[in-house]
Amino acid sequence: MLLFDAVGLGLFAVAGTTKGAHRGTQSGDGDFYGVLTGIGGGILRDVLVNQTPTVLEADIYAVAALAAGFVVVIGYKLHYPAFVVMTVGALLCFWLRVMAI
Length: 101
What we know:
Layout: H1 2-22, H2 27-48, H3 54-57, H4 62-77, H5 82-100
């Protein structure tokens, strides 16, 4: 179950950061959108099943989402292809989360 959570965290963090970057926000705002999107779903899931949110218990959860956001923002500013940047960001987030597990 935690591996699927790591996959979801990476994908949603990258998607949120990409949305923030395309809206023309500052780089810090794009990272904030990515972290909020990434951890928001997990918090909602945990609250609905009456558990303590994983982000409050895990060692590296929001930090992994933030790392993915930095990769996406830097890649966006350097005009790298979106698919490559999003893939690298999601894989980095997934790898950090799996290593923390």
